Every structure is written in structure tokens, then in C-alpha cells.
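Note to self: keep these together.
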Amino acid sequence: MFPISTAVILILGLGFFVFTISRWVAVFKKMRPDRLEWNLPARIKGLFTIAIAQSRLLSKRDFWPGLMHAVIFWGFCVI
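Structure:
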């Protein structure tokens, strides 16, 4: 309907996006690499016990809220 104004808005939006991403890239380039422990069996065990089984949420301190969260999480996984 208004191709010139649409083009201007599109160019301004893309310019703002490129500007923002370039600032993020500059910050990421200044960062040091992270020293991760690449113990793959321990990482896979942690994935299943913490992320899938929700073991941290089922601790004694927050058992009932953790149980409710885990049931909702597992319900979404089933769906």
C-alpha cells in the first residue's frame, strides 16, 4: 500500500538489528574461552539426573513445589 514508507521502516529495522548484533559480537570476541570439564560420561549422567529426572527440584528442602514442577515438566514431555 505504501511501498516507500514500508521500505524505510524495513531498512531502519534491519539497520538497528545489524547494529545490535555487531555490539554483541564485539563483546563476545573480547571474552575468554570457558574451561569446561569435558568428562563426557559425567556430563551425560548429569543431564539425565538433573535435567530429565529433575533431581535438584526433588530435594528435601523444596519437595512439594519441586514435585509439582516435575509433574508439569514430565506432563509436557509426554505431550
